[in-house]
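Handout, section 4.2: multi-component inputs.
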Amino acid sequence: MQLTERKKKILRAVVESYIETAEPVGSKALAALAGLKVSSATIRNDLADLTEQGYLEQPHTSAGRVPSPKGYRLYVNELMEEQRLSLEETKQINDALHLKMQELDKVIGQAGRMVSQLTNYPAFAMAEGVRRLTIKRFDLILVDSASFIAVVMTDSSVVKNKLFRLPAELSEPQLQLLTTLLNTAFVGKTLDQLTPELMRVAEHAAGGSYGLISLVVSFAMEVLDSLENSAVYTAGASHILDHPEYQDVGKAQKLMSYLSEDRSLAQALALPALDGDDTKILIGPENVADELKDTSVVLASYDIGDGMKGVIGVVGPTRMDYAKVAAKLSYVADGLSKLFGQPELPPGTPEKEE
Amino acid sequence: MQLTERKKKILRAVVESYIETAEPVGSKALAALAGLKVSSATIRNDLADLTEQGYLEQPHTSAGRVPSPKGYRLYVNELMEEQRLSLEETKQINDALHLKMQELDKVIGQAGRMVSQLTNYPAFAMAEGVRRLTIKRFDLILVDSASFIAVVMTDSSVVKNKLFRLPAELSEPQLQLLTTLLNTAFVGKTLDQLTPELMRVAEHAAGGSYGLISLVVSFAMEVLDSLENSAVYTAGASHILDHPEYQDVGKAQKLMSYLSEDRSLAQALALPALDGDDTKILIGPENVADELKDTSVVLASYDIGDGMKGVIGVVGPTRMDYAKVAAKLSYVADGLSKLFGQPELPPGTPEKEE
DNA sequence: CCTTAGCACTCAGGCATATCGAGTGCTAAA
DNA sequence: TTTAGCACTCGATATGCCTGAGTGCTAAGG
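Output:
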């Protein structure tokens, strides 16, 4: 069931016009718009065929045509031209990405915000939390006689710390002992291997040290937990109100509240495992989540390093500028991968440009 | 210009009925509703007076009355009954607050989310970033020959760290030297005292160490900067769509985009300096920001320790359940103050209940 | 066989009109 | 000072009409 060249051209024109104007497009407008030298009547015939084959839809009998999800799919797969970003746009993205060297989770959140601003759609970003992480190392730093800092480093080289204040005195040698104990007993263990028994044994070896071992290990467990079940960062949810398909407050509200439920969102996004390294586009009913059945999602994945991956994407109406969004998203994702890949360089060191 | 008891009663009934139903309330309904034994005609007379004095407004001639900002103000100041939270509600709040011991900024964000969920209004939370902070201490921990962790502690006892990877080798003694240098040259300095010259001098003293000093100090500066210009955490913006005054998408959008501009929000909130330690209520035009002129803001402050304060609050239509919101907010704020005030206790240590 | 012109038909959206009823303000009596 | 009664106002809702964009179909033309 191949489509003729002309029908493809017409379909493409319908999609692009509708993306731009959000109005159903009619045969006459198409005759003027597309570079076709046929009359509106001919186009009408083709439109009827395309509608019958499910690529287009008609809101009501006397209205123009609107692309169906199937139509968008064909457009995305075959008709869409790869969009190249302007120099200005790439510069803007680069600047934003390199602005500050920050903690991993902050960077991810920041990237989400940027994408949302860039595309005018709500965006989200997350790090995939699949891998079983372990603690690589503990350090304890004495601050004063009644407080110390615990520094915990995971095997994915994420470092977190926390200040502990104590109800009692503590000396440097004691702390040294604790550090060694922690490093021998708990390094290399995954979250579920950090059992209460293990902690009790270590606690015992430490001798009456006010349960400090458990305290520090609990912290380490929290770190592992938060990394493995890593958060979804959403941004710019208010952008859905920019688009006419959400003039209906009820619809907008449904989508918004869905977007603010981190958990279900994370689940929905983990599912369409990004096989290729490229961007992935889910149109309307292709989404698994019911709440997204009449929205589209564009995803891109990036490498965090150590084999870990992250996902960044936007949500919007099916009438979405797929070409632009996909281009921007994949550029940002690339940028993120590079950011995480490169070691920290002293300022002033010339960076490799490509 | 004192109001009679009856007029106060009527005003209060109008406010409370309107808060509940969002419908203008008429004389007949009031006669039934308020515990008054007068007829609707009498109430009409009083309503006319109240309207003339500016406590009530009339959307149009043949509609009921609606409280004006002035009316809400009187209600809040004199007529409103302090709301006590149910045991269930306090329990819910306590659980959420004590669920996890987290980093300062996470706790604040979490609290905002909680408040939003609790009240069904958009919420925000921030730590006031007024104080001039200084670095209290540096620690460098060698991870392997090509990477180390820098731990920076401010005089407000906030601790941050970062992993640095180097393009060259580094030994333990070198790191020791760097640590001492950092601690002697940069401790106790405020952000603007960390001048480039100071860094150059220290760099020189360190001898060719790949600009590591600058690297670590830049990180410290970022930490100070982010703490002093502390972020505003907003949550639950989508809740504004729950309320009928924002059925108009245009209005909703305006407010939403205002709420997502962290900067202006922070500014707007810093202004009404919370003098008393209690909650503060800003009704409609009492807000300085134009965008908030027809919304109300309820604020509560909490202590972070070391004399630092934070603000937590919600935004909503002027028709807001002030009593409930204020009660919840101040309870959460109290909880936060306690949370920050108490030292880290080993698990199992019984906590003081009040 | 494909394309085109012509034409009758459909239907959402805009506009004017009519109706309804909640709520008011005013007056006069209690 | 309160109350009952009544005319009046005006938003909300319903109804009908009209318009015009856009269609599908048919018949003629390349």
